[in-house]
Structures are given as C-alpha cells and as structure tokens.
Amino acid sequence: LVVLGIESSCDDTAAAVVASDGRVLGEAIAGQAAIHAAFGGVHPSAAAAAHAAAIESVVAEALARAGAAAGDLSAVAVTVGPGLSLCLDVGVRKARALSREAGLPLVAVHHMEAHALVARLAAAAAAADAAGGGGAGAAGAAAPGGVAFPFLCLLVSGGHNLLVLARGVGDYLQLGSTLDDALGEAYDKVARMLGLKLEPHGGAVLEALARGGDPGRYALPVPMQRHPNCDFSFAGLKTGVRLCIERELPPEGHPDREQIAADIAASFQSVAVTHLCQRVRRGIGWARDALAAQDSAGSDSSSSGGGSDAGGSSSGNSSNSSNSSSSSNGRGGDCSGSGRDGSGALRQLVVAGGVASNAVVRQRLGELAAEAGLELVVPPPRWCTDNGVMVAWAGIERMRLGLFEPALPPLQLEPGQEQEWIDLRPRWPLTTEKAAGSTPRV
Ligand code: ATP
Ligand code: FE
C-alpha cells in the first residue's frame, strides 16, 4: 500500500506519502504561526483561507518528493476530525477530489488517533534502522522493537490532554482527560504572558527559554493533589504563573528581566511535567488493572484471550461513539475497534502530540517509564506536532482493517450540490469507553 495523508484540522496544512512497509516517500507542510501570532490564537477563518491557499501546492509537493502521481496511490487518508470545521473542510474536499479523479479509496482519520499511531511507525522505523534495514518492515504488526497493542498513551497537544489505554485501532479506554486546558494550550498562554514570540510554537519557544532557568526558583502549585484519579487540570497553574509574573517580572529593559522570565518558565514547566508524571504513574496502575480485568473476563468466556483477534473482539467497546464507525459504507464499515495484536501485558508508554517534542517531558516520562518497567516510545519531534505522515500512517493502519470508503463515483450531482461521502467530525471523541473514575469529558 502507498497512501497519501492530508492534514488541515488546525493551523498546519500538511501532506505525506507513506508506504505500508513504513517508508516515508515524501512530506510537505505549510505552517501558519505567523498569521495567527497577531490574533493571539488560531483564527478559524484566517486559518481556513491559509489552508485553501496552501493545499494544492502542499499535496503536489508531497507527491513530487515521493516521485508519485495520484494514480500510483492505493488510497487517500484525510483528517476528518476533531478540529475546526472550516479547516477540516479544505483537506476533505481535496481528498474527495483526488478520490474521484484517480478512483482512490478514502480513509477517514481521527486526528488524535493519528498522533498516537505514528509512534508505531516511528518505533518500527527506528528498529529497522538499528537492524540496518530499509523500511520499517512489519511496522503495523507486533514487530520486535515496534509498538504493539495494548499500550498506554499520553496525548499532549494544543487541544487535548488525554491518557488512554490503546487496545487496538479505534479502541481506546479513557483513563484521564483535562478538566480545562490542554498542556500545549497552557504553554502557549504562558509564552504569551511572558511576551515571547509564538513561532513556530509558543511551547517550543518557552522550552528554549526555560533551559536557562532555575526550575526551583518559584513554588507553583502542583494541580489536583486532592483528586486521586488520572485527570488533568492546567487552569490553576496558569493562574499561578500569571500572578507570579505580575509579582516578579520586572519591566522591559530591566537587567534581570530575562533571567527572571527564564526562571518562571522553568518553574512552570517543572510543575506541569510533575503533574503529567503523577497522573501517568497512577494511569499505569489503572491500565494494568483494566488489562487484568479484561484477561479474566476473556478467560471466563470463549474468547481467545489475546492474539490477533481483530474485529469480533470488541466486546468492551460498547459506546456509541466508536471512532471506527465512520466507515459507513466501506468494506468492514461495521467493524468496531480492532487490530489488537498484543496479549494482556503492558509493555510500552507512548507519548505523542506537540508537547511530546519537549525534551523535559521526554526525559522525565522516560525515567518514570523505566521505574515502572515500561519502554518509553516518543515519535521524533517533527512527527509530534501536526504532520501529514501521521495521517497517512493512520490511513494505512485503518486500510489494513478494511476501515475505508470505496472510491467515489464520478460526480453526477446538480451544480452546487455536493455529496458528503465523508462527513466532517469536528467533535469526534477518541475514546470508546471510560475507566471508572475518569471524568465524562473527552
Ligand atoms: P490537537 O492535536 O489537540 O488538535 P494541535 O494539533 O493544535 O491540537 P499539535 O500540533 O499536536 O496541537 O501541538 C501543538 C502544541 O504543542 C502547541 O500548543 C505547542 O505550543 C505545543 N508544543 C510544540 N512544541 C513544544 C515544546 N517543545 N514544548 C512544549 N509544547 C510544545
Ligand atoms: Fe495535533
């Protein structure tokens, strides 16, 4: 399989061509940070206009780098949600047009699932490199050195802060979610409060500033100490930082300003990462309990108890929000969460999403994973923030399970009328089930 992935859910227009053996054949991206800096956040109609201006050239560039024409592809994968509808629409229209023109199947991709699954591509590619191989080999399977289901996954990005047990493609048990902001959003807001430049990302600029700072200088409150669950909250910490800035940060031109800003940034980052670590430590226990309960339920019934039990194994997948149900009329359209390829034991912690490109996040979660006997897997930084590779790869994972739409027929509609073969899903929950104790929000 060779799949083109298209991403336009927020402020990056991205495309990539990826082969099912894990080779990334071509990538292209157009960011919009400079456009949104003036608004203090992503401005939906400005973002949609920028996507519309960039989409043709980004897709053409990814194809050109891959040395491929649309007709050489096996399918087009596109992010259909969650995200800004005006923005998603640009990518989905382009994917529909390619599907029609070249007779390609379409794969509807969940943006957060793409963030999570690209770790499977990255880990297998790294293992193949270490072995001196070319591509990622059996990247989607339980390859040695790859990432196999089930795994614990912390998704930390601009719009999401989720801790999930990934049991299979389209099959995620929610352990924790944020009650307010996501950590990426908190990084962006603190960067703005400190008057930093927000390009390419506020979070990356804040991390760079924090490198020269003392993380112990300002005592900020670690969130949610009285909530013994796996949920997150960053609003209180953000307020703490604001008050600290008002109290401590001298005006522009003051000789100590830079150092104090760095100390505030480092103190914020340290407490935020402590919060992540505390929740993940508890989540490891919850995930192990959930797997043990699943195993004992499996051994009570006629289930095979692990192994490759795709499709029919999703008994726990009772929610009506199963993200696999998007494939309404494709082959396997009624196949709910599947692709489980691991037995019960938890072996890996995956951290993904834009904030996972942060070195302090990687280091401290790596230490925690090692203590708990887990391997930490984090995609390379360019695949942590939004990119086309993750969408193409998620497309490949879904194609393998039959979760795609057939090629669109030539258009036979009235002018101005458009058939919605793939619906946009701006609010699409990732999780199919929630652990007891997790809040209802996703
Ligand atoms: P979502 O994936 O939830 O829809 P998004 O797509 O906007 O949101 P991503 O592109 O995954 O988010 O990640 C961008 C976020 O990651 C931004 O909030 C950015 O500040 C943050 N980020 C990027 N690099 C770093 C870094 N080095 N340290 C901390 N945060 C970072
Ligand atoms: Fe994202």
TrEMBL record:
Cofactor note: Binds 1 divalent metal cation per subunit.
An annotated GO cellular component: mitochondrion
Region (Disordered): 295-341
Catalytic activity: L-threonylcarbamoyladenylate + adenosine(37) in tRNA = N(6)-L-threonylcarbamoyladenosine(37) in tRNA + AMP + H(+)
Compositionally skewed regions (Gly residues) per UniProt: 304-314, 330-341
Coiled coil regions, renumbered to chain: none
GO molecular function: metal ion binding; tRNA N(6)-L-threonylcarbamoyladenine synthase activity
Cofactor: a divalent metal cation
Bias (Low complexity) ranges: 315-329
Subcellular location: Mitochondrion
Domain Gcp-like residues, every copy: 24-123, 145-282, 346-393
GO biological process, one term: tRNA threonylcarbamoyladenosine modification
Family, as annotated: Belongs to the KAE1 / TsaD family.
Subunit-structure text: Homodimer.
Biological function: Required for the formation of a threonylcarbamoyl group on adenosine at position 37 (t(6)A37) in mitochondrial tRNAs that read codons beginning with adenine. Probably involved in the transfer of the threonylcarbamoyl moiety of threonylcarbamoyl-AMP (TC-AMP) to the N6 group of A37. Involved in mitochondrial genome maintenance.
Protein name (Swiss-Prot/TrEMBL): Glycoprotease 1
